[in-house]
Amino acid sequence: MKLLEERIRQDGVVLPGNVLKVNQFLNHQIDPQLMYEIGQEFARLFKESPITKILTVEASGIAPAIMAGLVMNVPVVFARKKKPSTLDAGVYTAEVYSYTKKVTNTISVDQKFLSAKDNVLVIDDFLANGQAVQGLLEICRQAQAEVSGVGIVVEKSFQKGVSLIKESGVRLESLARIASFENGEVRFVEE
Ligand code: 5GP
């Protein structure tokens, strides 16, 4: 997605540890117009799929997910990172190691928001080693929901998440694909 690549070139800051900071439009300040275009692009890519629900994880997945949900006219569920209390019956849970925070979170979704009747599009802001997406796919598995695919805003193609998802046979669509960071510059995968 050209518009997104241009925005990453303009505002993205490469940090140590192969982390791209995009606080100008996605991770802190949010550009609603860009998010809307992203939502439209996900809707276009998955228009043949009978999606009934979008699943993401708080916090940064919510903005792109909600715009996709708006365009596709389906509800958006976000997995929570707060550990569910033992009193919380009826939740699906998965363990997710955070790439940026270096801690393991238990993510959870209330069972009433996801079931075997659902066909899910999983959306997240970044794909690095694939832990967040795998946690979301695990929650879909527990719910016995169908998964039509995974939509990622920024894929770091040189990290292992891409192959993990492809090996699991799930369709992956990423709107910007980063081949490498070289001397603080972002290089995108050539089409
Ligand atoms: P993964 O679980 O695929 O290893 O990492 C994905 C998660 O870590 C995303 O939900 C995102 O919040 C965070 N993340 C991973 N890499 C980056 C990055 O380069 N920049 C930012 N802003 N977040 C990242």
TrEMBL record:
The keyword Cytoplasm applies. It catalyses: XMP + diphosphate = xanthine + 5-phospho-alpha-D-ribose 1-diphosphate. Pathway: Purine metabolism; XMP biosynthesis via salvage pathway; XMP from xanthine: step 1/1. It is found in: Cytoplasm. The keyword Transmembrane helix does not apply. 5-phospho-alpha-D-ribose 1-diphosphate binds at residues 128-132. GO terms for cellular component: cytoplasm. Its EC number is 2.4.2.22. GO terms for biological process: purine ribonucleoside salvage; xanthine metabolic process; XMP salvage. PANTHER family: HYPOXANTHINE/GUANINE PHOSPHORIBOSYLTRANSFERASE, XANTHINE PHOSPHORIBOSYLTRANSFERASE. This is Xanthine phosphoribosyltransferase. It comes from Ligilactobacillus apodemi DSM 16634 = JCM 16172. The gene is xpt.
